[in-house]
UniProtKB/TrEMBL annotation:
SUPFAM superfamilies, sorted: YgfB-like
Organism: Rhodanobacter ginsengisoli
Gene3D superfamilies found in the cross-reference section: YgfB uncharacterised protein family UPF0149, PF03695
Classification via InterPro entries: YgfB-like, YgfB-like_sf
Pfam families given in the database record: UPF0149 (PF03695)
Protein name: UPF0149 family protein
Family to which the UniProt record says this protein belongs: Belongs to the UPF0149 family.
Domain of life: Bacteria
Length: 187
């Protein structure tokens, strides 16, 4: 757990190793965020079942289940944060640039997969802007980076990270608004 009490990248990485999930921490976080942003609900199901992740290990321990639930709650609250505090879960800034860039690709790949798992009903009605955001996230997810000037590369990664951060919140807002309007109100 990080100093702020939030579930951190290293904690999720250790969980993935224990459960032998065959994914990366950033990809798992991206999948969960994409699932929630796309209108998916975790009520009545576990995080691993919702994301269709099967580990090679036995069922998660109660502690691991609790950690996954804390991560899900953290993702939900950050995506809803009126202060726009959402951040993709990536390795710390002191990690090598290549590791952080690859984690960003993994996060986007996971986000798109999770978004797709949330269901296609509302997705067919996405605005043109939201559809463009999904295409742009797909471009990032399919990227391979060439590194040259470390300062310029660092700046480029920061720009991509900011785009991805805002993109996830915009998609969540659009899908949440659409879900609310399709539920209607009771009189």
């Amino acid at each position: 757990m990080t100093a702020s009490g939030l579930v951190g990248h290293d904690e999720i990485d250790a969980l993935i190793m224990r459960l032998r999930l065959g994914t990366e921490a950033s990809e798992l976080h991206g999948s969960l965020c994409g699932y929630l942003a796309g209108g998916g609900s975790l009520r009545g199901t576990s995080v691993l079942a919702a994301l269709q992740l099967d580990g090679e290990a036995t069922d998660p321990s109660p502690e691991d289940q609790a950690l996954l639930q804390r991560l899900a709650s953290q993702c939900e609250s950050e995506l809803l944060d009126p202060e726009l505090g959402f951040e993709p879960l990536l390795p710390e800034d002191d990690r090598p640039l290549t590791e952080r860039a690859e984690a960003m690709v993994d996060w986007c790949r996971g986000f798109l997969g999770g978004f797709g798992l949330a269901g296609t009903g509302a997705h067919a009605q996405l605005s043109e802007e939201a559809q463009e955001i999904l295409r742009d996230l797909g471009t990032v997810a399919a990227s391979a980076f060439d590194f040259g000037n470390e300062s310029e590369d660092e700046d480029a990664l920061i720009e991509v990270q900011e785009f991805v951060r805002v993109a996830a919140m915009l998609l969540h807002t659009e899908c949440a608004a659409r879900d609310a309007s399709t539920r209607g109100t009771l009189h």
